[in-house]
Amino acid sequence: MRKTFVICFLMICISVSFSSCLKAANDPISKTEFLLGTICSVKIYDRSDKSILEKVFDEIKRIESMISTSIKSSEISEINRNSGIKAVEVSLEVLGLIKRGLEFSVISGGIFNIAIGPLVDLWGIGTPDARVPLPEEIEETIPLLDYRDVEIDEAKRLVFLKKTGMSLDLGGIAKGYIADRIEQVLWDNGVSSAIVNLGGNVYAHGSKNGNEEWKIGIQDPFSQRNQYFAIYRTKNESIVSSGVYERFFEQDGVVYHHIFDSTTGYPVVTKLQSVTITGQNSETADALSTIVFSLGIEKGSEFLEGFPDYEAIFVDEDKKIYLTQKMMDLTEITNESYQVEIYD
Amino acid sequence: MIKRQWMVGDFKIKRADLIILAILIILSIVPLFLSANEALANNDIYAVIYVDAQKYKEIKLGEGVSLEFVIEDKDVRNVIVVEGNEIYMSSSSCHDQICVKQGIISKPGQSIVCLPNRIYIEIIGKEVTPVDDISR
Amino acid sequence: MTYHARTRTLALMALFSAQGIVLHIIESYIPIPFIIPGAKLGLANIVTVSALYVLSPVKVLGVIIVRVLLSSIFAGTMITFAYSMAGAVLSYAMMLLLKSILRDKVGLIGISCTGAVFHNIGQLLVASIMIGSIRIISYLPFLSLAGIITGIFVGIASHYLVMSTKRFQAKVNI
């Protein structure tokens, strides 16, 4: 009889301590820092070694120091300073990035434009000097936005901006590229379950806790930061959203957002509030989000057909969601005030 | 009086069984009242303040809480106010004042950011978060 | 125990474990609309309850451990293992306690329903630790009432299983 009680007591103790251990094992380690002009956070679920987080953030800082336009010693800043003057030698890594940025510029007919620097500086969106430029200022700036004036010498690793006053801005693929690099760092360090969020650019690495899907919320363009209208379930994928709500300013009752049309010099006129692109490669998803947003629903989804492994979720100003049946199956709409329309 | 045992076929149901069943049913129903009572509900929400990427303070929000923090360092001066379940940036030395304009936050997931002064306030609840992260 | 008796007991334990695993796998195909991984009807309890009347307590524990371990390997993840283990162990502890205290006064239905309810309590306790919020206990009423109903069925099924096992043992003269 006594033996029975002892056994029972021991078993209860075992179950309690067992679950506490598992809880500790299940909590992710995470780190958040102000980088790239925004908030970057990384959560690792299947390793408890904090030095891996350090390695990830070191990688972010390393790349930032090479491509950021706000860091005067970066390679991009060097290229921009020498616009119209001379070609600048760059590292293989930056050369590759610029090349791919140019490729996106070419296939999108300039909608994605790595030479958009002067326009971004003129409007100053995201800085305290944000303002609506005068028409003359815009007219003067437009000729400096031609990506075809970016010359690359691959053999010698040289980049030359032909006209003075031109400048490169890789903001449209920077976060995507960094996320792809972080993916490599994570794999190299044996991590197979992590979430990376670079200023809203999400990369879901591997799967959650063994084999579960990640649940990624999609920002509600009509609500506050971190309010989502839908949950997208996935494994090992990048989720990038572009929208009017990200960076904007208001002047005289008109809202000016940060996605520009280099042919007009003004923010893209669109009925869309946001576009969310999903796909394997973060850099591609990043570029696509800008392109597809600018193109609108019809042309955007047509353009996307050239990228079979990438999907989109559109939200227009009437709170209507457009997505394919395939995406609908993976998405749960949590905000009832939205309507859904499924297209092919 | 309840019989000591019944037979159903060759299966015995004992009086003790019925008593136990009754106890178990009552035991199961109890939590219904408790959670309706919110006595077991864990409604704790916390505001976490990060300064320069380091966790600076974690404050439990709730009725009766009334606090004011001044974060001061060189040319940074931000004042954070906590009033009950709400927290907001009442003043900031930054030029764009976006953090002040963001107003009051009170629900888990909401946040206030002062990028120039590198201050970040986030509200978290110790509950199941339905999502692992949010794409913006 | 004689050599033969030990072997037979071992075989019986293995049989029970196997039955438990099969029952677990079958019932994992029945969807339960709750968020707790591992929440299920509790059919595998038929095996636990039966074993309780046929084998000694420690051996039944062995059966349970083997059953939970292999079930999670075949039809679950580390997480379902944690929840199943916690539930199974707590429910066994309570069933054992009840049987030891009340002995003949309690029938199989009382035992199996107790087992079902405490299995759920165990799982919810683990869930509340994992999730960090005790609010999850609000699922208890629904899970338990469903468990009690299954428990009645489990008790009846166990009765017949125990009877046929004992009849078999008598025939083979164990």
What does this entry look like structurally?
The complex is a heterotrimer of chains A (344), B (136) and C (174). Chain A has 344 residues and is an alpha+beta fold. Chain A has helices at residues 2-26, 50-67, 75-81, 92-107, 117-123, 135-141, 171-188, 282-304, 325-330; strands at 29-35, 38-44, 88-89, 150-153, 158-161, 193-198, 201-206, 214-219, 228-234, 237-243, 248-251, 254-257, 272-279, 311-316, 320-324, 331-333, 339-343. In chain A, helix 2 (50-67) packs antiparallel against helix 7 (171-188). Chain A starts with a helix and ends with a strand. The mean pLDDT of chain A is 90. A four-stranded antiparallel β-sheet of chain B has the order 4-3-10-9. Chain B has a four-stranded antiparallel β-sheet with strand order 5-6-7-8. A two-stranded antiparallel sheet of chain B has the order 1-2. In chain B, a hairpin with a 4-residue loop joins strand 9 and strand 10 (119-125). Chain B has 136 residues and is of the alpha+beta class. The mean pLDDT of chain C is 81. Chain C has one domain (3-172): Orthogonal Bundle (Arp2/3 complex 21 kDa subunit ARPC3). At the A-B interface, strand 1, strand 2, strand 7, strand 8 and strand 9 of A face strand 11 of B. Strand 8 of chain A pairs parallel with strand 11 (133-135) of chain B, so a sheet runs across the interface.
